Amino acid sequence: MKTLLPLREQPSFKIYLPQVLGLAPNVTLEEISDGVEVKRHASCLSINIPSAAKESLIHNLKEGWCTDNLSASWRQLLEHLLGAGMIMARGEAPAGSVHAADAFATISRAIDCASSQAFPPNHALNDLIKGECSLQTVKRWIIENYHFTAAARHHIAPVLDHDMSFLEREMWLRLLKDESWHWRIYRKVFTQLGLTFQNVDAMTPDPTTTALVSALTEAAIAGPVEYAAALVFIERPPMVACIEEDPLYGALLLKYGLERKSVQPLWWHALENRHSGHSSLPAVIISNRLHIAREVVGDACTRATQVVAVVGRWQQSILSRTPHEA
Fold first, then answer.
1. How far is CA 47 from CA 17, 44, 112, 143, 188, in A?
2. For the domain with range 97-325, which CATH number is right: 3.10.180.10, 1.10.490.10, 3.40.50.2000, 1.20.910.10?
3. Sign of the CA dihedral running 289, 295, 296, 299
4. Residue 182 and residue 310: Cα distance in Å, rounded?
5. pLDDT tier at 279 (50, 70, 90 boundaries)?
6. Which pLDDT band holds residue 5 (cuts at 50, 70, 90)?
7. Quick one: what percent of the chain has pLDDT higher than 90?
């Protein structure tokens, strides 16, 4: 994935910055004409900065960046880098724990590795993107995505059973409120496809759709850190600003005859992950823990990679079945 910084985020969502930060393992810097690219595996953040600031940026990220008295622009940049798992804290954490920033970088690195395994080049999602699926398959894909979206309350609610700060609880409640009505975004595409909420609700979801909801629910039951980690992959926003440029939603619009008014709400929902702060929520939740027990970090990585694997199987299943199996 590749995106440009800075991005807009809701001001109420704040990532906590440790006193000193530096590059996480396996993260590299590459100078480009108008800034610097920060890379880890297939992830890439392009930072557009003036040439005069480029040397300082590279030096600080490599040698250690003190976060005291930062300007607003540098703070925003570091928040985005931490939220992408590209940087981590310098210094020792208390015995038996790791810095929260390090935990998030570890989780992000694990998700990268799991993603490459869950979505190989021959994955059925690539057929959808290339326009090689039947309209019946696309219809089934939309129905299963609706079932998943409609189940949001089921997997979010259990996280509220845990002890947490007032501010953190408010963040989870906001997510629950936001996601609880998003099933409505399918109204127009259902109409174009000759479907209604009533007849789709009567359909039994694919077993892999149920498995994905179950994996997220189990992470929420395990704890806020585990659930936040599980949401990292789910809540990633599009890397482009225009629907036609997005591989997935652009394909729905341009290759399968779906009307713009049908696809636009789905695209809005994807963009909402960024603009409402959903995409930064996992980093906010985890970074504000300051230090996290090693066993919790290990469990969070396991939960996060399990979700990526289940998403891969989910997409493969609903895009691979022949029409008579639908």
1. 19, 10, 20, 38, 37
2. 1.20.910.10
3. positive
4. 22
5. confident
6. very low
7. 82
